[in-house]
Design goal:
CATH class of the largest domain: Alpha Beta
Number of domains: 2
Low-confidence stretches: none
Number of strands: 17
CATH topology of the largest domain: D-amino Acid Aminotransferase, Chain A, domain 2
Strand content: 25-35%
CATH architecture of the largest domain: Alpha-Beta Barrel
Radius of gyration: 20 Å
Oligomer: single chain
CATH superfamily of the largest domain: D-amino Acid Aminotransferase, subunit A, domain 2
Distance between the termini: 11 Å
Bound molecules: pyridoxal-5'-phosphate
Largest sheet: 9 strands, antiparallel
Number of helices: 7
Helix content: 10-25%
Length: about 350
Amino acid sequence: MEKKDLDWGSLGFAYMPTDYSYVSNYKDGKWDEGGLTEDHSVKLSECAGILQYCQQVFEGLKAYTQKNGDIVCFRPDLNADRMFNSAARLVMPSFPRDRFVDAVKQVIKGNAAWVPPYGSGATLYIRPYMFATGEVIGVQPADEYQFRILTTPVGPYYSGGVKPVKIVVPDYDRAAPRGTGNIKAGLNYAMSLYPSMLAHKEGYADNMFLDPQTNTYVEESGGANIIFAAKDGTLVVPVSHNDSILPSVTRRSLEYVAENILGMKVVRRPVRFDEIGDFVECGMCGTAAVISPVASVTKDGKETKFENGYTTVGPVMKELRQTLVDIQTGDREAPEGWICHVC
Ligand SMILES: *Cc1c(COP(=O)(O)O)cnc(C)c1O
């Protein structure tokens, strides 16, 4: 198979259609057979549920080429589980987990020529999503849905080397207590755009949201979970009283790597914002960057710096990040079931 003639190293993070998308429709209480399509557009009724009451959930994962030439993706079963749960919360039909993984494999295989070569740092980004196509005007769940997967090649997240970023605590919440913060839905992103835009305008890379009930505890950023390293090397993972933190696949994988491969101590507990100055490193974790090291967090004009990670990525985040990247690229043995072989 001949790869597409792209300058993989200089790709950014922007949509570029590939050869195929995957599509399956839900009607009369069941999903159709589904399959690949060359049509990258969606035609909808003006009254479709997604356009009126915002029933949409999504996922994000990456496919890449390992050293031996195999095309693989990382733990798609966890994305399948999460989308299953997200859909249930928005009263959408769940897409069967085994079919989800199969669809992800089909669409990667169909677009194998678009999966960046080993060592380029680029990946094929996979975006499964589901939305209400059925017509609704009275407020209620729709009765028809579409599940789609689009793929698009994306460049290395850090082209100039991993560099710590400054983030800021916004005057807005991303989730409500007992709301939808723990599911992956577009609606959670729509409301984070405004504080995110303000943060960028002030020169910050991202937001650190606090718990929406008391504004006292650390939750996460708009699209990544947060982890800390304590002075004694312990990895501290914030837990939400409100269950309003999205269960990141990357963060859960990093916890496992820390505990079982690197022999680190991992503590999961609520983390008060006023204690973060005691930590020596901080990172934001998600599929895109694996870990983005955080240099400092500013709240009400006061900057808290992480002493081991302010100018360059600190040793804990660096080792965690490299270990997980090596597992993903096949340069290090993966825990059972983590690497999903496609072709
Ligand atoms: C997708 C997402 C993450 C990261 O999850 P991964 O599975 O690691 O990519 C974290 N927080 C939010 C709010 C997200 O939507």
